[in-house]
């Protein structure tokens, strides 16, 4: 069977009855939860769920309990749904796993089975062979904004485009954190249209003071402005020194990649497209729209030498280690020292 994306799964269950077995895997656990809900909504009427929906942890079931669970007929309904979580924890060759594989070879026509693999490990071939596999990978930046808009609508909110952009720029692409911030907006009675100003008040950020603004200042070699941004950025909800240094390190790596391509002979006119293809292949987290970021990396590659970028990455790695060894109270000093240290030429620093 083919591998579906989250969108393809949603379309398929809207147009046709659910498949007998789904296998959900990938980096984004929140998207797995949404996929489970989509299958349940398609398979079960709300009034049938109390008797026809079972959610279990796979490692807790022995072979007999698993067989009974999967072959129990539905009650007063056409079908039932069984959700088995943590399937990756079922031991190979164990009786329970063997019972599951036997079921996948001949699934019940009245049961929809959803296998959920926690974490971002690769799919397990024996499970994928007997199911409709659905990969729930980390969303690219432009999709994160669309996801936030849709999730807001489900909570009764309508985010203005500028509000969505500020929320994603401030919170990042962690869907779980974004969902919590949207819940806060709904809980604060921000029903209806949500403005940029309401989002700014919620996350404690003003225009020009996001983590991306700080990173941009560093890569544009405006180190004094970057240093001034450290304190207001750290004051934002959920922000830490590690998050700032991670964002900066990702941008430095992107710029170093562009610099390497430039030195390898890639024409300047083609450089943004080449870097963009690298980003699509690597799917890094924490960036804005990849095509826009690729253009930034290409432009900044001409302002940094390979040696400067190598030193900057080394300093960022050292700052990351210092942040993880120390307490949050030290974040401001360590990040500021990193930013100002990048402004000092290597010979002076030595």
In a few lines, what is going on in this structure?
Helices cover 59% and strands 10% of the residues.
Discrete helix count:
18
Q: What radius of gyration results from the CA coordinates?
A: 24 Å
Helix content: 55-70%
- By helix and strand content, what is the structural category? alpha/beta
Mean pLDDT across all residues, rounded? 90
Cα end-to-end separation: 59 Å
**How many DSSP E strands?**
8
Q: Could you spell the SSE succession in H and E letters?
A: EHEHHEHEHEHEHEHHEHHHHHHHHH
- Bin the strand percentage: 5-15%
Uncertain residue segments: none
Structure description:
The protein is an alpha/beta fold and 350 residues long. It is built from 18 helices and eight strands. It has helices spanning 6-15, 29-43, 49-52, 63-71, 95-105, 125-129, 141-154, 161-171, 175-187, 196-203, 211-219, 223-234, 241-263, 271-282, 290-301, 306-325, 331-343, 346-349; strands spanning 3-4, 21-25, 53-57, 80-85, 111-116, 132-135, 157-159, 192-194. The strands form two sheets. Strands 1-6-2-5-4-3 form a six-stranded parallel sheet, sandwiched between helices. Strand 3 (53-57), helix 4 and strand 4 form a beta-alpha-beta unit. The protein is elongated and about 70 Å long. The relative contact order is 0.09. The model has no long low-confidence stretch (mean pLDDT 90).
């Amino acid at each position: 069977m083919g591998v579906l994306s989250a969108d393809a799964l949603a379309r398929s269950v809207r147009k046709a009855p659910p498949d007998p077995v789904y296998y959900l895997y990938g980096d984004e656990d929140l998207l797995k939860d949404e996929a489970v809900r989509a299958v349940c909504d398609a398979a079960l009427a709300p009034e049938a769920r109390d008797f026809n929906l079972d959610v279990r942890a796979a490692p807790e079931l022995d072979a007999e309990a698993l067989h009974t669970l999967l072959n129990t007929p539905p009650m007063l309904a056409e079908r039932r749904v069984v959700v088995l979580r943590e399937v990756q924890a079922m031991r190979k060759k164990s009786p329970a796993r063997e019972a599951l594989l036997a079921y996948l070879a001949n699934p019940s026509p009245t049961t929809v089975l959803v296998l959920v693999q926690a974490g971002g490990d690769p799919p397990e071939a024996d499970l994928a062979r007997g199911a409709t596999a659905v990969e729930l990978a980390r969303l690219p930046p432009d999709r994160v904004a669309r996801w936030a808009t849709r999730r807001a609508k489900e909570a009764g909110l309508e985010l203005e485009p500028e509000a969505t952009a500020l929320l994603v720029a401030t919170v990042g692409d962690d869907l779980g954190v974004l969902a919590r911030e949207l819940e806060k907006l709904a809980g604060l009675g921000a029903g209806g249209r949500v403005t940029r100003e309401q989002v700014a008040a919620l996350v404690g950020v003003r225009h020009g003071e996001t983590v991306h603004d700080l990173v941009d200042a560093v890569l544009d070699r405006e180190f004094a402005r970057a240093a001034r941004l450290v304190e207001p950025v750290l004051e934002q909800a959920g922000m830490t020194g590690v998050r700032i240094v991670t964002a900066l390190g990702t941008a430095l790596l992107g710029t170093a990649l562009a610099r390497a391509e430039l030195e390898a002979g890639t024409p300047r006119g083609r450089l943004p497209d080449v870097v963009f293809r690298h980003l699509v292949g690597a799917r890094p987290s924490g960036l804005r729209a990849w095509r826009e970021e690729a253009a930034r990396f290409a432009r900044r590659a001409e302002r940094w030498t390979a040696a400067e970028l190598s030193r900057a990455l080394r300093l960022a790695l050292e700052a990351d280690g210092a942040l993880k060894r120390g307490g949050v109270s030290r974040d401001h000093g360590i990040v500021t020292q990193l930013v100002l240290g990048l402004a000092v030429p290597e010979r002076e620093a030595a």
